[in-house]
């Protein structure tokens, strides 16, 4: 089989745009929780704890969402590989939107006591369950519609959408964070969560119009569909699942940047909320342009050199960013933050959607990506609370930077051990001993 007919039958631009918009809406929901956890949840849901403990508990509640992601990966991965990518994408946007709106409706600790943080954690678990299938489903959809020589470029739109979701989440919080403290705590924090009702409507409309991928329809659904995709996945592709798990801890760079560093800057160093939120906005704007550029480069020279270079750059620049926060120098903060998250981290974000998906054949692709990434992301999800625990004050940033560098090193080892796949035909991806991958 060749790639030509499938690539032309598929609709790569439509799939990529749908992945972009869907991911932007999904991850708007996911990231407004992280912003709220860093800024106000310690006062609303954990007010009886001292300030540092309340912050730690709030950040831990952010990490709890990642606990549900491996569970969601097993279930939604199975559904996506057995019954189609489209079903997963419609379900995830619906669940994410509903659970996020409900967070904005929660009573506070002062109103119902311990039931408030318990309900908060329960809804965060539902968010995590939804996110488990979102990126793997969108990546599988765009990869299987894409021309073989531009798979990284088209799959990178999923992660560009994720960055757009972060921009929306941070931008919505800019006027909210500027409210007087009593109004922010009383009602202002709820507004970004209520706006998520739009996600349900827009997401369902967009994704209900998607076509199933030709790869799934022709190769999987009609002739080779696996009723239990997880069995061949762990029997034949366990090494690549493990490789993706280890490589995916690079996501800790994102969670430390967006959650821990925000909390450190505001709660420990005492910097103003609005300017530090603008660092995230501008970094994500730069990332929107950088991600497809890095992905296009990976289509030409290969996945591994771009991925490894990005990981190494993140290890170095995290030192610069956290140090700049400790100094309070806004010029250094903006320059290092944009360089870290907008430029260098985008090299890893632009590559992994194609690189991880290309490790697996179509029959187990969504399961392989979902299980591998979500276990790795679950580990990364607790990096803000781990960082808060090891940071220990204004000068503790260096321990957090060292922790991040260690995670980047793990990613580099995992990526370096993988086979290069940028020249492998789509129909041969994940198959053993193909000439281009040996």
From TrEMBL:
Residues 15-423 form the Major facilitator superfamily (MFS) profile domain. It is found in: Cell membrane. It comes from the Bacteria. The chain crosses the membrane at residues 15-36, 56-76, 88-109, 184-206, 241-263, 275-294, 306-324, 330-352, 364-384, 396-416. It is a multi-pass membrane protein. Keywords: Cell membrane, Membrane, Transmembrane, Transmembrane helix, Transport. The keyword Transmembrane helix applies. This is MFS transporter.
């Amino acid at each position: 089989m060749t790639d030509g007919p499938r690539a032309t039958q598929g609709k790569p631009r439509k799939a990529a745009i749908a992945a972009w918009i869907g991911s932007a809406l999904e991850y708007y929901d996911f990231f407004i929780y992280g912003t709220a956890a860093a800024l106000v949840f310690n006062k609303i849901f954990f007010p009886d704890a001292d300030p540092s403990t309340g912050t730690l508990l709030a950040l831990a509640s952010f990490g709890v969402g990642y606990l549900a992601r491996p569970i969601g990966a097993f279930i939604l991965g199975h559904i996506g590989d057995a019954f189609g990518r489209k079903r997963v994408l419609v379900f995830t946007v619906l669940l994410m939107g509903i659970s996020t709106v409900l967070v904005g409706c929660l009573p506070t600790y002062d109103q119902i006591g311990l039931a408030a943080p318990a309900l908060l954690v329960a809804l965060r678990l539902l968010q995590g369950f939804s996110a488990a299938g979102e990126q793997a489903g969108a990546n599988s959809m765009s990869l299987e519609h894409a021309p073989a020589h531009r798979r990284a470029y088209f799959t990178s739109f999923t992660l560009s959408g994720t960055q757009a979701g972060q921009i929306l989440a941070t931008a919505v919080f800019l006027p909210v964070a500027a409210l007087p403290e009593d109004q922010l705590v009383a009602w202002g924090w709820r507004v970004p969560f209520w706006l998520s009702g739009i996600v349900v409507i827009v997401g369902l409309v967009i994704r209900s119009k998607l076509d199933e991928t030709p790869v799934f329809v022709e190769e999987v659904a009609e002739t080779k569909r696996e009723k239990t995709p997880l069995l061949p996945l762990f029997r034949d592709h366990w090494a690549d699942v493990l490789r993706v798990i280890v490589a995916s801890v690079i996501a800790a760079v994102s969670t430390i940047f967006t959650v821990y560093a925000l909390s450190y800057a505001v709660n420990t160093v005492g910097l103003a909320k609005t300017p530090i939120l603008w660092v995230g906005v501008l970094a994500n704007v730069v990332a929107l342009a950088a991600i497809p550029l890095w992905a296009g480069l990976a289509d030409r020279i290969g996945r591994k050199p771009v991925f490894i270079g990005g990981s190494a750059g993140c290890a170095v620049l995290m030192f610069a960013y956290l140090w700049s926060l400790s100094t309070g120098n806004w010029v250094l903060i903006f320059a290092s933050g944009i360089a870290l998250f907008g430029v260098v981290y985008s090299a890893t974000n632009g590559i992994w959607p194609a690189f991880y998906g290309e490790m697996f054949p179509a029959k187990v692709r969504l399961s392989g990506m979902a299980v591998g990434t979500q276990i790795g992301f679950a580990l990364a999800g607790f990096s803000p609370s781990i960082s808060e625990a090891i940071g220990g004050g204004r000068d503790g940033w260096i321990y957090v930077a060292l922790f991040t560098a260690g995670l980047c090193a793990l990613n580099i080892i995992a990526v370096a051990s993988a086979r290069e796949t940028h020249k492998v035909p789509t129909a041969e991806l994940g198959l053993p001993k193909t000439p281009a991958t040996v």
